[in-house]
Specification:
Length: 196
Amino acid sequence: ADGACGGAAERGRRHRRGGWRLGASGRGRPAAVGGAAAPHRGEARRLRVAATRAAVADFVAEGGGLVANHTAPICFDDWDEWGQIVGCRWQWGISSHPPVGPCRARLVAGHPITDSAPALIEVDDEVYGDLATSPDIGVLGVARRTADDDDQPVLFTHQYHQGSVVFTGFGHHRATIEHDDYGPLLLRSVDWASRR
């Protein structure tokens, strides 16, 4: 990161990127840039957001890799292209998930992401269900919200133009990311998505 959110090494520093000054407060949070009376703040923010979205879409479309983790389908619901990039989208009033609890994901063998993983992964997390998914996703793992639920895709690959995308549905908290079976699966997802 460029210091916009700040870490211990970034506190108090200011950076320039693309003409925008980014700063971090002494507490590691974004600092206000320009003061309360800065004119056209809303317009400047809108332009930055549009430019960032275009940069992400262009990066993936031109062959970049993306791993979309856990809440990715529910993010940026004012940006239609995000669901196309990720390969799925949360449907307000239709999609759902139960509270965090025991989840069992069945994995499909025969793909570099899943080949060295166990056939079944059990974690305490959430299963998102009834997402709007692209018809061309390559499902690598499924789980159920409840015992009588349909299989829900919790791990899949997707091509967005020339780019490789992996969606990993688990990851609600640190324990899942560090899980002995799920952590390596996430790392292999990054490896696969970043191949060129």
